[in-house]
């Protein structure tokens, strides 16, 4: 299943820059052209939540520390 091209046109990064997203039909992901965050597409519904995004600037979840 592919996302509707018309839907893709109006999709934008949920971050403040609202940059366009790059759709990868193979990986079922949307990559922000500005910050590089990767958003998943689940059941043809793009999950455009910063909390759910992978990568992007200041991505430090690999360190896994819970205290700041
Ligand atoms: Zn972005």
UniProtKB/TrEMBL annotation:
Q: Which InterPro entries match?
A: Trm112-like
| Segments crossing the lipid bilayer | none
Q: Per its UniProt record, what Pfam families does this chain match?
A: Trm112p
Gene3D superfamilies according to UniProt: 2.20.25.10
Protein family: Belongs to the UPF0434 family.
Q: Can you name this protein?
A: UPF0434 protein GA0070213_10464
Q: Upper lineage ranks?
A: Bacteria, Bacillati, Actinomycetota, Actinomycetes, Micromonosporales
């Amino acid at each position: 299943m592919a996302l509707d091209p018309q839907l893709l046109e109006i999709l934008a990064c949920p971050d403040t820059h609202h940059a366009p997203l790059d759709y990868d039909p193979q990986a079922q992901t949307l990559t922000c052209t500005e910050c590089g965050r990767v958003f998943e597409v689940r059941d043809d519904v793009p999950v455009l939540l910063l909390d759910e995004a992978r990568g992007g600037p200041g991505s430090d979840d690999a360190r896994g520390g819970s205290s700041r």
